[in-house]
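retry 2 of 3: previous attempt timed out while embedding NDP. Reduced batch size to 1 and resubmitted. Inputs unchanged:
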Amino acid sequence: MVRFIPLMAALAYLATPSTAFAPASSQIRIRQNTATPSIVATSPLASSTLLPAMLTETELPEKLYFPKTDKEPAKVLGGLKIGTRKLTVITGASSGLGLNCAATLAKTGRHFVVMACRDVEKGKRAAKEMGMPDDSYVVMKLELGSLQSVRDFVFNLKAFKSARPVNNLICNAAVYKPTDPEPAWTDDGFEQSMGINHFGHFLLVNLLVDDMAKAKGARCCIVGSITGNTNTVGGGLVYPQADLGTLSGFEKGAKKPVAMADGKPFFGAKAYKDSKVCNMMTVSELHRRYHESTGIAFSSMYPGCIAETSLFREKRPWFRKAFPWFMKYVTGGYVGMQEAGERLAQVVDDPQCTKSDVYWSWNGGAQQVGRWSPDGKPRGAGGSGGEIFENEQSDAVRDRETAKKMWELSVKACGMD
Ligand code: NDP
Ligand code: PMR
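retry 2 succeeded.
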């Protein structure tokens, strides 16, 4: 495989589309979030329900009522039967890993899924295309590139679910901007990869910890990646490597014009990997700070290389064609979208995944006979593959001092101090 490395490095460079050389002004930026955040319920009766941002509990229509405890008998809410299903929130559920995870969980009948999406209509279409039962989910607006939108989402979620706690939170959404020559910024002035992947989720989890503490056996998973771990081929040998340095960019406030965590000039591919390090460090800090007092199991995971998702939208078309092939036949790291979704679903659904502070990964490649499947039946060949195991993260990700500093500076950056 080693002989492929220089070749792939060259190919990766060539895969950079010409937009990499476009002037900064042509880059897409997230506009100020002026639109009214909305809850869009997708049950047959509630499909046209659009609720304003600031709801009080009493304003909620009866059909959006949630049972307040697990013991309360299942209510029929205009076709929306929630019953005793677990309440599971997934960010970035409109495509790729998040969508496949949402569909897997919804179809088990054990989860009511809140699909937290930046594009609500896209989320609704995607759920329908995946065949998710109408009464198994709602799509709610969440723009992670706006801290105000994160706060609005939490407000609306709490109004929607009433006193019933969130059982599972999956922080999955992300952007990867390897070819942007200049940084694009979130509403709050963060570089987008760090702002969306890390800061938005950081605030979201922190706003929901108290609520989740009320649920028995709650789980929170923040999706990590091998490419943020320098103890792997994918993360250690492939340029650029993740490196938070001394976090001098965070110390300066992590806002425009400061683009990178280490305070150095903008480098899109590295910004993504740095954001994944922050995601994984956030998990270990959450564990250290809240696991004992709340009982929440905090985890991260690497699903495998899902080489066909929209994450690679900036790459040239030929790269997007060659990449799955390379991952399948050269590195063996490939995983299909459905299987990856099942893996993420396993982390919040499988009784063997209750341990906190774990970085989950799966042995073997795709197309193997796996042990876990969402319907509880053994998988045949060609189905869900690999066996779950507790993986080791790089020393940089496990570095306690940097993780603590990252946490404290993120609290500041998100205005939570
Ligand atoms: P996708 O691009 O398919 O999914 C990303 C999701 O995040 C989309 O639903 C997207 O919404 C959403 N999203 C993007 N920006 C925002 C935002 N500002 N606010 C709210 N939601 C947003 O990529 P993947 O499925 O591949 O990625 C999912 C996760 O998996 C990421 O955390 C990624 O880091 C991780 N991962 C992926 C790997 C891979 O090989 N693909 C490998 C390892 C980890 P929309 O549908 O509107 O675009
Ligand atoms: Mg990488 C075992 C080797 C391995 C694995 C598991 C991955 C995963 N990659 C491996 C090796 C290589 N990659 C090699 C030898 C090369 C050639 C130099 C290579 C290149 C490469 C590129 C250009 N790989 C990439 C890219 C991307 O743009 C992807 C990326 O970094 O996105 C952030 C990527 C990935 N390789 C992976 C995985 C999982 C990714 C994708 C995404 C992620 O971390 O989210």
